[in-house]
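Two proteins were folded this term; both appear here.
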Amino acid sequence: MTSFAQSPTGGVSTRPTDGTTQYGRPVTHAQQPFAVTAVLERGTAAIVDAASSALDRSQLAHYDDVGADERRRRIRSLFEVVLASLDQRDLVPIQRYAETIAHERFEGGFGISEVQTAFNVLEEATWRHVVVSTDPAELAESIGIVATVLGAGKDMLARTYVALATERHVPSLDLTALFRGGR
């Protein structure tokens, strides 16, 4: 019988704990969880606390409006999706989440810099935790894996946001002033 792990959020992970897949077949290297996933799961509270504090200090109008508890909930949700992408070795969860967030925040009037800041503070807190909690021999790979997942999310967020903004003129994305001959 295959047993399943308890997820850091209290639910049940779909990752078996007995070395088999959910179908009873042996786990291959490509299916094994990344070592950094366990490091991040153990550090969930510290990472979410650090990222939430950084977002609090950012003084972003729309995030200030929702309050500290909601900001923390949002950071934790993003972190849980990062863990899911790592656990599944699949970028689709982070990409779908980022696309959804881009639509929600765009419609809510958030500037892209506000939304990118939330991803950035989580990335920084995650990296700091990985650096102090990972064996030096695994550090480069661990940072690369985390950067890949968060980078895929940030890329999707930006592409979706820009696509939405091109349908309407959005002052926060008017970059012509950065170029000679611009406004």
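Next, the second protein.
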Amino acid sequence: MAMSESQEFRTRYPGYNVLDKWSSPDWDDQTREVVRHRLEDVPPVRFFTEHEARTLAAICERIVPQPDRDEALKIPIVPWIDEKLYEYKRDGYRYEELPPQRETWRLGLMGIDETSRALFDGKPFVELEPLSQDVVLHHMERGNAPGAVWEKMPASRFFKSVLSIMIVKIYYAHPRAWNEIGYAGPSSPRGHVRKWEGGRDPWEAHEEETDRVEQRGSRRL
């Protein structure tokens, strides 16, 4: 499910920091405002209960772990999901097997705790060791998670199409995650010239060869 706490994160873009583009021709004032908002205006948690927020935070640590980042530099995920639900920002569609968005999230987090308690002697998800948490999530992924909630909606659908995808989307909407994949942020106003496969403009991040990255590793920014 996730890398272990002892594994070192290695990026193909060591030393790359997308914020170096702040005053460059790559970004205009609108782009800078969007990036500043994502970095500084982290919303408060208003939809989730304290326990739900803790449960979701623990899940995020297994889906996109950040063990190499100091707590202050970890990419916040729960607050942005919470804001979407609090402000009822819907996607414009939903899966027929699932209830409306807010109910889906409440039931889903409740179901994860039900599965956790069924598999691990009554313990809620937040009290499990990381590898035991992975077991719970694997059961959900395979669609054979125990719990009354999953009789109302499919665990696999919630895990794959709602929970995981939302966590990953929020994670990679943050500039610190862009550093890991060499993403330069919104292309306005400069745009791209070398748009063919394998093409790279001079102002884009340079990808290091795999063997060099593996030899030295790289701590995330």
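Confidence is low (pLDDT under 50) at residues 213-218. The CA atoms of residues 30 and 188 lie 9 Å apart. These notes refer to the second protein only.
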